[in-house]
Amino acid sequence: YEFQTSAGMLQASNLGHWEVAFLMQHHGLPTRLLDWTETFATALYFATRAPSESAAVWMLDPYLLNAQTCRQEEVLDIDADFPHNYFEYFIADDKLPFPGDAAAVLPRRGNIRLASQRGLFTLHNSREPLENRYSNCLRKFELRADSAAAAKRFLRLAGTDEYSLFPDLDGLCRHLKGRYEYLSTTRAQLWSTADRNLASKSR
What we know:
The protein is α+β, with helices and mostly antiparallel strands. Helix content is 47%, strand content 14%. It is built from ten helices and six strands. The chain has helices at 2-7, 17-26, 40-48, 62-69, 86-90, 112-116, 130-133, 148-158, 162-165, 169-202; strands spanning 33-37, 56-60, 76-77, 102-106, 119-124, 138-142. The strands form two sheets. Strands 1-5-4-3 form a four-stranded mixed beta sheet. A two-stranded antiparallel ribbon has the order 2-6. α3 crosses α8 (148-158).
């Protein structure tokens, strides 16, 4: 309720409990949700967004997960397959039992970030990581540290960047800042190579 009250005109006025939870998750507040995407490029972008020596892309079989946790071999529709809402399952004083440890759910992509990132969620009833209990539903692809440059090149060619995934003014400014930093670094490297070549020829 504090999020809805404080957000005011920054959010639509007709959002339901599920939509508010999705909005909170996409803007950095802790929820019972974990972000996933339908596209490899988006997953790779977030895996390599910050420098790291242990980057990885995880692949989930949502059908197998739901078959094991909810006895339904399909990605669940957040409105059609759940008789109650986020508040009633996870926040209310007299919480209603959630039907499973975790569930892969298809949200209504009502906010622009969720739509641009082709987002989906897993919804969790406990803090235990999925890989600890449902490792057969997951596959981890670790990225070597020396593959970061190649990944960045692929993402530039694919047009996957801050602005395509965060299509607002903040995303645009981060994209422009990153692009000009990249161009500046690339030009400096080219000039350095040219200077070395000239020095070599003059000897």
